[in-house]
Design a protein that fits this description.
The protein is built from 11 helices and 13 strands. It is α/β, with parallel strands linked by helices and 344 residues long. The chain is elongated.
Length: 344
C-alpha cells in the first residue's frame, strides 16, 4: 500500500495555466443550462465576463447514472447530446477559457478526454475505482473531488491511479479538491482546515469546490487564505436551475473573482523582507542613539547617557554595544545623534 506523503508534489499546469502562481477560478455550470444548448453558450460568455479562468460541465447519460427511475427521468431533462460539448468546448476556447468537464461513465470519459486538458472526478466517484482507473488511462491531469470521503478512501483512489498510470502520481499531475457533499453545505461545516491538512499529508496541490449558499462567498475567500489553488463555484443565469441554491449569479461571481484576486495580492510571497512601500518610512519610524546629556571629550560613555529617538540617521539602538564603554573623542552636546566618529 502506498503511504501518505510518498508523492512528489511537482508543478502542474492545466492548458498552460500555472495554479501555483495564480488561483484557477472555475465557474461550475454543471447542468444549470437545463439541457438548453443556447443557454449553455450564453453561460460561457457570461462566465467570461465575470472574470473566471475556466468553465466546467457535467456529462452523463441518465440511464447509466442511477437505478432510481424517477431520478433518472429528472436527470434526463438536463442532458445535452455529446456533439453539443464540442461546440461548448470550442466556444470556451474562443473566449479564452479553459473547458473542463466531469464525466460520470466511461463513454463520457472518452468524450471529455477529447475536449478537456484535465478530467474532473466527482466526489460521488471517489470510491469508483474502476472509473478512476479508466480516467487514469487517458493520461491527462486529474482533478479529484473529495467530498464525503475519508483519508483512506482518498489514498485508495490515489493508489488506483498510481497502479494504472504511475506518471500521473510521480509527476503530480493531480489536484485534490476539498468539498462538502451537501447542497447547501452549512458554513460551520465546511472544515476549511482540511485544505492545508490534505496538502501537508499528501503533498499535492489542493483546491476547494464550494457548495455553500449562493450569496455567501466567505468559504471560497477563506479557502484561498488557507492555500486553495483552485476555487470552483457553481454558476447560474436563472433561478430555475438544478443547483440554484448553491450557484452564484454573474454579479456574485464577478465580486468573487475580484475578491480572490485581491486576496492573492495581499497574501504575497512566503518571505519576510521590507516592501518597496516601506523603505521611505523605515528611517522615519526607527530610532537612533542620542546623547541624553552633555558628554565631555574623553568621558567614558555609559547607557545612562543615552536614549533612543527618531529618526534612524545615527547609530541604531541595536548597536548600543558599539558605544558603551567607549571614550568620547570630542564634546558631545545633549540631543546630538551618536555617530561612528564620536567615540573610540
Amino acid at each position: 500500500m502506498v503511504k501518505e506523503k510518498e508523492w512528489s508534489g511537482e508543478k502542474m499546469k492545466i492548458e498552460g495555466f500555472d495554479v501555483e502562481k495564480k488561483v484557477l477560478i472555475v465557474a461550475e455550470i454543471g447542468v444549470n443550462h437545463n439541457g438548453d444548448l443556447g443557454l449553455a453558450k450564453e453561460m460561457i460568455k457570461e462566465a467570461k465576463a465575470s472574470g473566471v479562468d475556466a468553465v466546467k460541465f457535467q456529462i452523463y447519460t441518465a440511464e447509466n447514472l442511477t437505478l432510481n427511475k424517477k431520478e433518472s427521468e429528472i436527470l434526463a431533462q438536463y442532458e445535452l447530446p455529446s456533439a453539443s460539448f464540442f461546440e461548448l468546448s470550442k466556444l470556451a476556447k474562443e473566449n479564452g477559457l479553459i473547458f473542463l468537464a466531469t464525466p460520470f461513465d466511461k463513454e463520457a470519459v472518452d468524450l471529455v478526454a477529447n475536449l478537456s486538458p484535465a478530467i474532473k472526478i466527482a466526489s460521488g466517484d471517489i470510491t469508483n475505482i474502476p472509473l478512476i482507473k479508466y480516467v487514469a488511462k487517458k493520461d491527462k491531469p486529474i482533478i479529484l473531488s473529495t467530498g464525503g470521503s475519508t483519508m483512506k478512501e482518498i489514498t485508495d483512489a490515489l493508489e488506483g491511479i498510481e497502479k494504472t498510470n504511475r506518471r500521473l502520481i510521480r509527476e503530480s499531475q493531480l489536484i485534490l479538491l476539498h468539498s462538502i457533499l451537501s447542497y447547501p453545505a452549512p458554513l460551520v461545516s465546511v472544515n476549511l482546515l482540511s485544505i492545508p491538512y490534505l496538502h501537508q499529508s499528501l503533498n499535492f496541490i489542493v483546491g476547494y469546490s464550494d457548495h455553500t449558499e449562493s450569496t455567501s462567498s466567505s468559504a471560497c475567500l477563506y479557502s484561498v487564505c488557507l492555500g486553495a489553488r483552485v476555487v470552483e463555484k457553481h454558476f447560474k443565469l436563472q433561478e430555475n436551475c438544478p443547483d440554484s441554491q448553491v450557484s452564484a449569479s454573474p454579479d456574485e461571481m464577478k465580486a468573487l473573482v475580484r475578491e480572490i484576486r485581491l486576496i492573492e495580492a495581499m497574501l504575497g510571497e512566503q518571505k519576510k523582507e521590507p516592501c518597496e512601500c516601506e523603505i521611505a518610512n523605515i528611517k522615519k519610524a526607527r530610532k537612533s542613539l542620542v546623547a541624553l546629556k552633555d558628554i565631555k571629550k574623553g568621558e567614558i560613555i555609559t547607557e545612562e547617557m543615552l536614549c533612543s529617538l527618531r529618526p534612524a540617521e545615527g547609530i541604531s539602538p541595536c548597536d548600543i554595544h558599539k558605544v558603551i564603554g567607549k571614550k568620547a573623542i570630542s564634546n558631545i552636546k545633549k540631543g546630538s545623534l551618536m555617530k561612528e566618529q564620536v567615540c573610540v
